Amino acid sequence: MHNLATRLRRLPPSCGPVRLIAVDGHAGSGKSTFAGQLARALDDAPVLHLDDIASHAELFEWTGRLLAQVIEPLARGEAAHYTPYDWRARRFGPPVAVPPAPVVVVEGVGAGRRALRPHLAQLLWMELTHEESWTRGRARDGAEQREFWDGWVRAELRHFTQDPSRPFADLLVRQSGKGYEVVPGPAGTVGPDQTVTHGDDPTAMC
């Protein structure tokens, strides 16, 4: 993990002074866990969870809000302020700040979408099939979220059909017995030294 973090720090800034790193993949594929470990290896880099940007009314139609609240301020070298969504209360909360740190991690389904890619220093894709990912996600969230998951699956399939992320991924991330294996993605130009990184908790999955 630290080798990957070192390489990411060496990338040129992509959004003002910020190197914006996206972690995308299907719901349940382990994005949050991996992004958290990566952020710690990046000296506790800020992590923006797209679950805080999305809402019941806008599962994927949140691009404008993310650009206005986060991307545009960071591009100016200013702190961003976004209003996280409370999925239980079904309302947006008070603003949360995201500083223009050297590296900021954005994780969530759709983090590598077309509108965000021009602002990204690197796009990482969690390499797990949608069937496996959704099975894990459903097991994680329990029976009370069954109806939500039925709607989510339809929305996610529609999103990735219209705006796929994986073909543009610089790196593919696979969970392995020793942590994570990171390999070149469809858009990657990595060298032979970029092979395997190790997480702190190999069995942890989002």
Q: How do the strands line up in the largest sheet?
A: 2-7-1-8-9-10-11
Instruction: Please outline the major beta sheet.
Output: 7 strands, mixed
Elements, N to C (H/E): HEHEHEEEEEEHHEEE
Number of helices: 5
How many beta strands in the DSSP annotation?
11
Low-confidence stretches: 190-206
Helix content: 25-40%
Q: What is the general shape?
A: globular
CA(first)-CA(last) distance: 17 Å
Mean pLDDT score: 88
Which class best fits the helix and strand makeup? Answer: alpha/beta
Radius of gyration: 16 Å
Q: What portion of residues belong to β-strands?
A: 15-25%
Task: Indicate the topology.
Elements (H helix, E strand, L loop, with lengths): L1 H8 L9 E6 L6 H11 L5 E3 L13 H13 L4 E3 L2 E2 L4 E2 L3 E3 L4 E5 L14 E5 L3 H12 L4 H17 L8 E6 L2 E6 L11 E2 L9
Parallel strand pairs: 1-7, 1-8, 2-7, 8-9
Antiparallel strand pairs: 3-6, 4-5, 9-10, 10-11
